[in-house]
Design goal:
Elements: H1 2-102, H2 108-149
Helix pairs in contact: 1-2
Length: 150
């Protein structure tokens, strides 16, 4: 009886060895696949972080450029306002001097006042336009950030 069991036992051992080798190979494949998936996830995460940082840097640079442009425009407006105020003062003095000797025609002071009023309204319009431009730029940056996040 023991002679008959040896071939069955040998076939069983061979089958068990084949099964264990197959299981070992499957476990190694699973481990390699899991490690590759982890690596791919880390690479994707670093790409997303890098793209997010680049977008934030680009938006920040664009915002700084817009702020610098607005400040330059405000300086130009202030310079021109000072120049116009000086000219208005000069016109007022000239109008008073001209009116003192020859009588009043009533047009000088009114014309200067209208010009000053127009300049003030134009200045307010420029300030309103700058504030609206800042809001539009902010909204555009927000929309771009949302679109990049998709």
């Amino acid at each position: 009886m023991s002679r008959r069991l040896w071939p069955v036992l040998a076939v069983g051992v061979v089958l068990a060895a084949i099964f264990l080798a197959w299981r070992y190979d499957r476990t190694q494949q699973f481990g390699r696949g899991y490690a590759k998936a982890q690596l791919d996830a880390r690479l994707l995460n670093s790409d997303i972080e890098r793209a997010t940082q680049q977008e934030a840097d680009r938006a920040d640079a664009q915002y700084r450029g817009a702020v610098l442009a607005r400040e330059a425009a405000q300086k130009t407006v202030a310079t021109q306002r000072a120049r116009i105020d000086g000219l208005l003062d000069q016109l007022r003095r000239n109008s008073k001097t001209a009116n003192a000797g020859s009588g009043s025609d009533g047009a000088g002071a009114d014309w200067i006042g209208v010009l000053g009023s127009c300049v003030a309204k134009y200045e307010r319009l420029g300030g309103d336009a700058a504030r609206l431009a800042d809001k539009v730029n902010g909204l555009q940056g927000y929309v771009r950030a949302i679109r990049v996040g998709r």
